[in-house]
Design goal:
By secondary structure, the protein is an alpha/beta fold. Helices cover about 45% and strands about 15% of the residues. The structure holds 1,3-dihydroxyacetonephosphate.
């Protein structure tokens, strides 16, 4: 039985002070015995959030990292830096990073491997544009993203990876995929994971849905057979996140 993982992705929101205040307000209400709950936050918020959430049972993640350990990469942060701070998760390959910051399947793959080597749990994102959905190539596209992102990752390591399916047209638009649409793609992801790693590993891996998840639609989405929780943007910045965790 896979444990659901419900992660907030704050994106570029909340100053360190706002982050600490929010965590103080929400930590008891958002903790869960049934689901793994995680806040993925901007780099500068990591320290106050880790301090505030210590002992709360809520995990902390970054929203990106670099694929090298150290060196001349101005403005970047390494997996080792995150790990040493006490960070446990890292979002990789979010569509906003692909769209605005030149992230590719190749860099995502390097980052996934580096995160695993450092003992971080990668939350590896994939998802199609509206144009791709309308052209009927969603499944092929997402299968390819998953295959490329996990290229060269062993089954033992892959078992730790969380795959987040986020249709780009559903992100921040209030236009959620129907639970059937989300399940169809999450199931296809499970199939490609089965082809790559065998049934036992694929059945262990968590596949999340993300894209306008809110307190109203979470229960229906998370009830689908291949959806093991959500990656929540806008609604994770508010108390509404509590209702999503306890869907
Ligand atoms: P929204 O929940 O705001 O649509 O964002 C989804 C997302 O991109 C999470 O990573």
């Amino acid at each position: 039985m896979r444990k659901k993982i419900i992660a907030g992705n704050w994106k570029m929101n909340k100053t360190p002070k706002e982050a600490a205040e929010f965590c103080r307000m929400i930590k008891e209400k958002a903790a869960s015995n049934e689901a793994e709950v995680v806040f993925c936050v901007p780099f500068v918020d990591l320290y106050p959030v880790l301090e505030e959430l210590r002992g709360s049972g809520i995990g902390v993640g970054a929203e990106n990292m670099h694929f090298e350990d150290s060196g001349a990469f101005t403005g970047e942060v390494s997996a080792l830096m995150l790990k040493e701070m006490g960070v446990e998760y890292v979002v990789l390959g979010h569509s906003e990073r692909r769209q605005y910051f030149g992230e590719t399947d190749e860099t995502v793959n390097k980052k996934v491997k580096k995160a695993l080597a450092a003992g971080l749990v990668p939350i590896m994102c994939c998802g199609e544009t509206l144009e791709q959905r309308e052209a009927g190539i969603t499944i092929e596209w997402v299968r390819m993203q998953v295959k490329c992102g996990l290229l060269g990752v062993s089954a033992a390591d892959a078992a730790k990876v969380v795959v987040a399916y986020e249709p780009i047209w559903a992100i921040g638009t209030g236009k959620t995929a129907t639970s059937e649409q989300a399940q169809e793609v999450c199931h296809a992801i499970r199939e490609v994971l089965t082809e790559m790693y065998g049934k036992e590993t694929a059945e262990q891996m968590r596949v999340q849905y993300g894209g306008s998840v809110n307190a109203k639609n979470a229960a229906e989405l998370f009830a689908m057979a291949d959806i093991d929780g959500g990656l929540v943007g806008g609604a994770s910045l508010k108390e509404e996140f509590v209702s999503i965790v306890h869907y």
